[in-house]
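Let us practice reading a record.
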Amino acid sequence: MDSNDLLDKLSQLLGSARETATIEFKSNWDKPGDIAEYISALANSAILDRHDRAWLIWGVDNQTHQVKGTTFDPFNAKAEGNQPLIMWLTQKILPRPDFTFHELSNPYGKVIMLEIHPPRSAPLAFSGVRYIRVDSHKVNLAQHPDKEARLWDALGVKDDWSGELVTEATLDDLDPEAIEAARKRFGEYLLKNEPDTSRHEQIRNDVASYDVATLLNKGRITKSGKITRAALLLLGKDESAHFLSPVDAKISWILRDASNKTESSQHFGIPLILSTDKVYSRIRNVTIEHMPDGTLFPTAIQKYDAWVMREALHNCIAHQDYRLGGKVNLVEHPDRLVFSNLGQFIPPSVEWMLEHQSPPEHYRNQWLIDGMIRLRMIDQVGSGIRRMFETQRERFFPLPDYTFDTTEQGYPRIEVTISGHVLDVKYTQMLMKRSDLELRQVLLLDRVQKHQALSSDEAKPLKAMKLIEGRSPNYFISAKVADWTGQKARYIRNRGLDDNHYQGLVKGYLEKYGEASRKDIDDLLLSKLPDILDAEQKAHKVRNLLQAMRRDGSIHRVGARASGVWKLGPEE
């Protein structure tokens, strides 16, 4: 939109009798978290109302709709960690939002118009929570299941790519070895779900006697004997991959060294029911010495749990958005495995999956997922992620890390990292065995151990329970947790000392030597500042200390900022 279009649009919006589900007026309101929540609510409401965009406008009275002007400046505003607001909003809202800030001049003052486009793949969420507008009120979408169901319907998520028929393909396009693997696994599925063991022999005989069409129909791989895309993905011959074009139905295994240089790689195509075992066999799952809790003797244990690896890989296959044209990737580093697939993470968040025992209402590839469950490639829907976390916890290994980002082409991507080593043995053991901590709390404290950022909503309950201290983004374990895990010295290094202590060091230096350059003061203080701070934050801390001492007259600077020296006493 050019300026004339925006002025016309503003005039139209001001003429509305009241705020609607896709229009919100504000004055000088500038809290980043609130803005992010409103972007989620307005964008999601635009989907339901079938509007091509929503608007958040600053400088207008929300009662009278009179232009009052605003001091809000989104182009220079900062969010957490001094990050530019617009970049922060783009990174914190998932899937990546499509919005544009506009600034308009008005005789009564500046007006800021935020133009928000509705998402196409999934409802927008901020900090794992999706919002919606009910009349002019912003509310949690999860509290309105009817609206949530209509929203997903409007996005067309129920159009299941994996369940669509491939009319040109026949049973002859399926791999015989893959079909026999499917027969074996489907039999195991039926036995697992039949508590009456007296029927097990009959089940085995039945499955062995099924012809291919009956087997695949019962396994929900085909539909009335007709080939689905899911059937080709799981059981198709390698030469049948052209039926899925332009989809690149492959798994890429990439081995990298400690410097991230690629040492080896291999690509595995359909049938994926066989390819996953081939990928698994390439992973260097060596035996390591592990010190279990309560013993002085190391125990031999595999670096990675076999079930966790398979579940992570099979989840990538199940939830890949094949329409985006990318491959499933498994990158093996010396100390970790990184699994990734394209597509938006449909549940509200990983934390939501850990807290809820029921699966989300919608999945991208429902037919493929149903088939993979019956072939025992993935757990019952919704339980696999939680079991992965519980298994790592039982092994006293760091919990899986989920990362949601985008590719260079702008496609959403999910990445799962499985660690093959323990960062701090005693911390991990004590953390994982605390029966009084819920799995979500263990997850968040595990992130603190890994120096990963927590949102304010995640940190708030941990602070209330006195499990962490510090300020965003530099949270660290509290004195209580440090006592549990034998990390009292680390706690003191992370907490740091009172500012008076550091100021005393500066004064002592100046009393002895008369003056100090900024480099002298950096050499004096940087190594003594809290370990939790990075180099830039430590430099910022020293600068603030010096300015505070300058304001109270303890010291003054002589000369230019870059080349001057500091001396005791106030400026003359």
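A brief commentary: The chain has a mean pLDDT of 84.
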